[in-house]
Input
Amino acid sequence: MNITLVDGPIKSSPAFSRFVREKVGGAIARFVGKIDRVRVHVSDANGPKGGIDKVCAIYAIVPGGSAVMVTHAAADYYGAVGAAARRLKTVLGRRLSRR
Output
């Protein structure tokens, strides 16, 4: 499974990259073969102002060109990625079971 992390100006650490691949990979493990690729975007919505502004958006491309996108905002990147990965698992389960 091809999971791409797009972190832009944040410049994530190797440990965070591994965390993203483990969380997202675990969430989509049962859908391997039904998903072409996954892109994980993390960003800081408010910059240095702080607050619940760490955003994770995950895009999963399924065969046939359709896409599934989920987002979650949290106080830290780890929380945002974990929650978005859980949501992706739920949404993909619903979407792919309809086929």
